[in-house]
Design goal:
Elements: H1 2-21, E1 27-31, H2 38-54, E2 58-62, H3 69-76, E3 84-89, H4 90-100, H5 107-110, E4 111-126, H6 135-144, E5 150-153, H7 159-171, E6 176-179, H8 183-192, E7 197-201, H9 202-210, E8 215-219, E9 245-253, H10 258-271, H11 275-284, E10 287-288, H12 293-313
């Protein structure tokens, strides 16, 4: 018994020492999308402050492809020491393996949720050439010309894509979905008129909406978004089922020492309270939200249960 007690004491002291010495070299934030998209912007917003708080350089590393599957699979195999972290969102974390029809990784097994970072509503936005001034007219247009409208998607299995599939199946509509490798290229083609509409994160579409290059028709969420107060929600227009937000969050590989996870959570939670950081996200159309590891895990389990059936019903799969 005494030997066991001593063993536990030694383990506790070793864990405390590990947390104190972590980090002693640069930390990487792996982003599963190209630069300039929602997740990339999130990572680059917190990276400088995280580096300053940890006393080490924090490097953002973009690893795009396959809806986040390439980055997620590579990350799941990285050393569980806290020096490689994953800044993920709904698609790469929850849906990419399901869409690929192979279990390249499973977030419940391979990832340790550290904390959420932001929550972002989506906005239905159209190119000015689209003859629809509100959601009713948009639905009528889509119904009148099945398959004619084109939607810009940032990738297979993103919240944007799943919400689009849910709208089509629920309302009996049909449009062509064009998948891009991230928000930025999708937005560029939407602004250029190569595609006609998108279900985009407000944080991505807001500058183009404010400049008049895109027209917003409706937003997700239980209440109107403060960034677009004149734009009604799907719920108030009678479509409460069309709700969905994009989360961004920080993850460590499975088996990362709990002391390191706690240190990373506590550090980032303080950063997300900083008024300057809160305002940066607010200006982008995102809300800074920090959950505990347990809270974040519970949230992910609920989202998994909500959206995986949509993936399967729509038979969404990788090309």
């Amino acid at each position: 018994m005494r030997a066991m007690y001593l063993g536990l004491c030694i383990a506790a002291l070793a864990g405390a020492a590990l947390a104190q010495e972590f980090p002693n070299r640069p930390v990487r934030l792996v982003v599963p999308w190209p630069p300039a998209g929602n997740v990339d912007i999130t990572a680059r917003t917190v990276a400088p402050a995280l580096g300053e708080a940890l006393g080490q350089q924090v490097i953002v590393e973009n690893k795009a492809g396959a809806g986040g599957l390439i980055a997620g699979e590579a990350f799941a195999k990285m050393p569980a020491d806290g020096y490689a972290l994953f800044v993920g969102a709904n698609g790469p974390v929850l849906f990419a393996p399901e869409i690929a029809k192979r279990e390249a990784y499973n977030w419940k097994r391979d990832f340790v949720p550290i904390t959420s970072i932001t929550m972002t509503p989506l906005v239905l936005e159209v190119h000015p050439s689209v003859a629809a001034k509100d959601l009713k007219e948009f639905i009528e247009l889509a119904r009148r010309d099945p398959g004619k409208l084109t939607m810009a998607s940032p990738g297979q299995g993103t919240t944007n894509h799943l919400l689009s599939e849910l709208m089509q199946s629920t309302l009996g509509l049909e449009w062509l979905t064009v998948h891009y490798r991230g928000n930025a290229p999708a937005l560029n083609d939407l602004i250029g008129g190569q595609v006609q509409f998108a279900l985009d994160q407000i944080s991505v579409g807001l500058p183009s909406i404010k400049s008049g290059m895109l027209r917003p028709l409706a937003v997700t969420g239980s209440h109107r978004a403060s960034w677009l107060p004149d734009v009604p929600t799907f719920t108030e227009l009678g479509y409460k089922e069309f709700d969905g937000q994009t989360f961004t969050g920080l993850f460590a590989p499975a088996r990362t020492p709990p002391e390191v996870v706690t240190k990373l959570h506590d550090t980032l939670a303080e950063i997300l309270k900083d008024p300057a950081i809160v305002e940066k996200f607010n200006a982008l159309g995102a809300e800074a939200v920090s959950m505990t590891p347990a809270e974040f895990t519970s949230y992910l389990e609920r989202e998994d249960a909500k959206w995986i059936p949509v993936v399967r019903k729509a038979n969404i799969k990788a090309d």
